[in-house]
């Protein structure tokens, strides 16, 4: 029955909990110096494994008007169909396994599903939607 389980990295943005598939995660790192980019919705560009990667602040995307940036602010580097991107979040929690039967489809702009773990409602983020911005030429 292991085939019916999916692994997710759980993280917090504001007061809500979100998840992305573990298989899409490249690495979790702390805030780095970003290069400015004149692209709406993109916080900046970072270098990850000698490649330029755009960084999106999920806190801003999900409604936080003035998020604070500290040296320990997490960035989750992920692979999308359009390439790697970095996601700035408030907190990275843990990896959890979820039975696919426990996932409810929830098709919104940036959310594809929802599940409950330990009394928490966790929203699954649509990575393809986040990576859909125009590619930046560097």
CATH superfamily: CheA-289, Domain 4
Strand line-up in the sheet with most strands? 8-1-2-11-10-9
Spans where pLDDT lies below 50 across 5 or more residues: 133-138
Q: How big a fraction of the residues is strand? A: over 45%
- The residue fraction in helices comes out at under 10%
Ends distance: 46 Å
Based on DSSP secondary structure assignment, what is the total number of beta strands? Answer: 11
Q: Assign the CATH class.
A: Mainly Beta
Keywords, separated by commas or semicolons:
OB fold (Dihydrolipoamide Acetyltransferase, E2P), single chain, 2 helices, 11 strands, about 5% helix, 5-stranded mixed beta sheet, about 140 residues, 6-stranded mixed beta sheet, mainly beta
Description:
The C terminus is likely disordered. This protein has one domain: Beta Barrel (OB fold (Dihydrolipoamide Acetyltransferase, E2P)). A hairpin with a 2-residue loop joins strand 4 and strand 5. It is globular. With 138 residues, it is mostly beta strands. The protein is built from two helices and eleven strands; from the N terminus they run E-E-E-E-E-H-E-E-E-E-E-E-H.
């Amino acid at each position: 029955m292991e085939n019916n389980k999916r692994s997710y990295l759980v993280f917090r943005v504001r007061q809500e909990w979100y998840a992305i598939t573990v298989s899409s995660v490249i690495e979790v790192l702390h805030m780095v110096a970003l290069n400015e980019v004149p692209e709406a919705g993109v916080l900046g560009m970072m270098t990850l494994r000698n490649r330029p990667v755009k960084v999106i602040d999920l806190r801003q995307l999900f409604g936080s008007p003035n998020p604070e940036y500290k040296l320990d602010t997490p960035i989750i580097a992920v692979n999308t169909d359009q390439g790697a991107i970095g996601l700035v979040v408030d907190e990275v929690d843990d990896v959890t396994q979820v039975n696919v039967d426990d996932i409810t489809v929830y098709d919104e702009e940036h959310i594809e599903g929802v599940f409950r773990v330990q009394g928490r409602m966790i929203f699954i983020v649509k990575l393809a939607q986040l990576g859909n911005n125009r590619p930046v030429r560097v």
